[in-house]
UniProtKB/TrEMBL annotation:
Gene3D superfamilies: Ribonuclease Inhibitor (3.80.10.10). This is (rape) hypothetical protein. It comes from Brassica napus (Rape). Pfam families: LRR_1 (PF00560), LRR_8 (PF13855). Keywords: Leucine-rich repeat, Repeat. It comes from the Eukaryota. The lineage of its organism: Eukaryota, Viridiplantae, Streptophyta, Embryophyta, Tracheophyta. InterPro entries: Leu-rich_rpt, Leu-rich_rpt_typical-subtyp, LRR_dom_sf, LRR_domain-containing. Residues 663-694 are annotated as: Disordered.
Amino acid sequence: MAGVLATAEGTESLNTRVSSKLMLFRNFEVKNASSLLVAELVVAAAEAVVVKDKSDGKKKKKATRLRNVEINDKAAIREGDEEEQAQRVFVSGNGSDSEGSSNIRFAQPFQSISPAVDLQKLILAHNEIEVLREDLKNLACLVVLNVSHNKLSQLPAAIGELTAMKSLDVSFNSISELPEQISSATSLVKLDCSSNRLKELPESLGRCLDLSDLKASNNQISSLHEDMANCSKLSKLDVEGNKLTALSERQIASWTMLTELNASKNMLVDLPQNIGSLSRLIRLDLHQNKISSIPPSIGGCSSLVEFYLGMNSLSTLPAEIGDLSRLGTLDLRSNQLKEYPVGGCKLKLSYLDLSNNSLTGLHPELGNMTTLKKLVLVGNPLRTLRSTLVNGPTAALLKYLRSRLSNGEETSASTPSKENVIASAARMSISTKELSLEGLNLTAVPSQVWESGEITKVNLSKNSIEELPAQLSSSASLQTLILSRNKIKDWPGEILKSLPALVCLKLDNNLLKQISLDGFQTVSGLQILDLSGNPASLGTGVHPKFSFLPQLQELYLSRVQLSEVPEDILNLSNLLILDLSQNLLQSIPKDIKKMTSLKHLDISNNNISSLPPELGLLEPTLEVLRLDGNPLRRDLAFFWQHVQLSYVASDSQPQTRQQITECKGRGLMKAPKDSANSLSPRQRGSIATKDEEA
């Protein structure tokens, strides 16, 4: 049924139509309502109102508990049907599905925001708001605040008193500085202050220790305070379009969780020498700066997929760029390069832009880059190549370059001996402190591992190693040990306890027997542990104690035949990634709510038929949830209603990802079709995706 809350201009004020009962709500959205005061909206919408039914004029007796509200310039408010207990009140503009529309008017301003308002999400984007009031602090339950695209010139100090707030969006305003009190918002996870007039970020922001996503692009920031290094959970940083001249080595050393860094369109002249410590970095955008060289440590960015260096002042590239084995996109346009290094020809690139440089020729080895789909060479003084090749199909150019390789230089050339490969890797490790002996079919750990000085990372994956030698205990500086895909049977506790600096251990896909109850006690400093593909490692019923791993941030337990989630895993307060896929799980415990730092949860391909409502309490920290391959039968409407995640669809499309977005319109979101098979047509119709908003 539909009812009109506010009538046309000139009628009685909204105040006279407020009943005595208070009606709380959780999600409030305002769009294009520039004539309305924010304080009026918040208080008025939080009060219980008399709703007149349009068909018979009767008054409803039951107050509605508001959850999702959207207000436009010309709007009518109506209730949901009684079958859904009228839990959704929404306002839509002309052209919407409302039965009537009229101007919402307020006869007089409200003097304060009621502390009783139980708001969790407040979206006031795309208005003409000039001031936020100090009594905003009364919204003690607020988790998400979006005041983007307004006319704000400052934020109230009270913003720091919103201690429950996890997401703050103040982008596209005219703010010249953020209040130092923002550090008191200690729960803050996401901050977007892009497109303002900021000259610096407050030093106190470094005390927001849970901050993982920071966007400060298109401002006038010239430097980042050193205390930002304290934000060690930072995974995404966007400072594009500022005036930065340098990035701090201390900050880079602390930001080991970074997966995306965008510092393009600044004034950077060089990069920190320890840039290679960002081993989780997937996307690095540094285009349009003044960078003249890339440090050799760049080879340590082993996860890098996209690297943008266009429009800088590079004249050479380090040979170590060839170590970026996952790199797919490399942008080097508009630099001063005279050659593309031979070492870079072993990359498996799909896109390479070398346009507008000073290249006079290309190494024939470039022809071996068979994965290359697009090679851009325009704007170079290439004298040894015909213009038809340079401007023609990439495949034809690669074929021509391969034809220039002399016998023995093609990909079929004889492989260097195993001994030579080990010796070469050992020499390189002297400068890089990293030793990679992957895929050499080794049956034992070579002595070079512990004889190569202060090695910090050793990769022995894809070999046939059965045990670790006692001499490995002397590698006191070792931080990362990768032993994936070997034949190790026993947990190497005695060796591991002599490696005090070890923070990353990968033993996936071995033949591990059951680990003893106190097995993890020898590696209490671990931050990353991968035991996937060892079905006997955790045993049945009695598991090794994960409580010995208080600093753990990533845990991978795929394919270990788990029938239940070990209870002490739920107490790992620093855990960011948990992979429990391809096990025998039938349920997820309610105490999952205690994992408040969790960003990525993979429970795909189990026997889970329902999800606990407590899982929704992990919003907005939880970013990725994989559910495919489970017989989910329960009505999940409550779940999509509250959770904002990257969702992976079900069995029929195991790799399809859809972005679940915030509640709008009717206040529900649409789950991917395959996951909503158990929902009724009416329930499925009340859900909306990012691509099909209500």
